[in-house]
Amino acid sequence: MANLLPQLVVPTHRPNLDPLTLFQDAQQVWLEIGFGAGEHMVYQAKAHPHVGLIGCEPYLNGVAKLLARMARERLSNLRVLQGDARDLLDCLAPGTISRAFLLFPDPWPKTRHHKRRFISAETLDQLARALKPGALFRVATDIPDYCRWTLERFCAHNAFEWQADSPKDWRERADDWPETRYEAKALKAGRNCVYLTFKKIEAQAGP
Predict the structure, then answer these.
(1) For the domain that residue 182 is a member of, what is the CATH number?
(2) Which of 17, 47, 177, 181 has the lowest CB atom count within 10 Å?
């Protein structure tokens, strides 16, 4: 935390930030929102050495676990924001993120707490601005209500298109989508997981 994290911090105070400038050899940048212990980020960083990955995580324990994994694997294509991903989305230059992930977010199950859920009309506007046309946004959850909430908001937004042609597309993970520790616990407990992929499209002009 003392030595590695300061080298990886993403500057959210810089307006119109081009995230490619945070990496030496990256050809594109991906974003993970709430990376937990970091196992998915590490997998993607190892599989795609020419992709820069930015991870946002508010909890200190998760950041520490990711840093330990990075040190063991000697990975250099990861950057970290210990805080709210919405702060980063506010400062990113438009169309600079090529892929994004939101894997098993806090569902905030109580009705009075639904306003705290990450998926909202406002954050989808932020994502639509930050993502490149054609970029994919992957969401996973084991909470049926959160799945329904997510689909309602994405399908109502004119900048995203749900990439599903059959039930298999949301019942099975893609080959390049590794199982996370939380997912393994959910499956062991008998909960079904849902894997949603949305594509950023050009917003349609109003009438």
Answers:
(1) 3.40.50.150
(2) 47
pLDDT, tens only, 21-35: 999 889 999 999 999
> Does the residue 9 lie in any domain?
no
Q: Backbone phi, then psi, for 113, in 5-degree steps?
A: -100, 0
Structure tokens at 36: 């937990």
CA-closest candidate to residue 101, choices 71, 60, 131: 131
Give dist(CA 28, CA 186) in Å, integer: 32
The number of folded domains in the chain is 1
The parent domain of residue 85 ranges over 28-200
Please state whether 79 falls in left (phi above 0), alpha (psi between -120 and 50) or beta. Answer: beta
Any catalytic annotation for residue 84? no
Over the stretch 57-106, which tens digit does the pLDDT of each residue have? 988 888 888 888 888 888 899 999 988 999 999 999 999 999 999 999 98
Report how far apart, in Å, the C-alpha atoms of 39 and of each of 17, 43, 48, 182 are: 26, 6, 14, 10
Confidence of residue 203 (pLDDT cuts 50, 70, 90): low
Active site residue: 106, 125, 145, 176, which one? 106
- Give the span between the Cα atoms of 23 and 7, in whole angstroms: 11
The amino acid sitting at 146 is Y
